[in-house]
Model the fold of this input.
Amino acid sequence: MSRTPYFHTPDRVQMLLNQLHLWSGTRWQHAGARPNAMRCGVSGDCLFWVHAFKAIGALPAKLEIPGYRLQEARADEMQTLRRCIEATGCADLVFDDAAGKQLPLFRIGDVLLFKNGTSGAHCGLVVKEAPVHFTHLTGNGLMEEPLQQAHYLRSLKYVYRLLEHELGVGRSTLNVESSGVSQ
Done:
């Protein structure tokens, strides 16, 4: 039986957009050994979306991100991050570039995983469906950009969609050690 996407109502979409607005003054800083210390309006890296989802109840408040190091992240090519996202039981893989699928119909709240040069990965969140825009935390702060740019489309590797919670599913740790998450 298929589960409903978490952001299927206008109220939930608005809660996400309001939360992301609060992150607008946040400066990028690799969280590494202290990913749970990311603070809205202060600093964070591209895993900020975990904190944004937790703040609005889309992910369990007790979910924690273990520390991760850039060198391990580069070598992993997103495999650990992907396994951990899937292990939460709260996300569905809707696009895998290696599978040769066409891009999905994007929904607000979709998590985008990009191959980011030699540094591993970069994450973003879909915030507008037509035309598709996403937001991501960069050295210039939280930025919203159109996805339909050649460099983003070439580097997009995976898309995950957050799903409604099921009781007893998932775990309380998003283990991103050697996840490929870096900027």
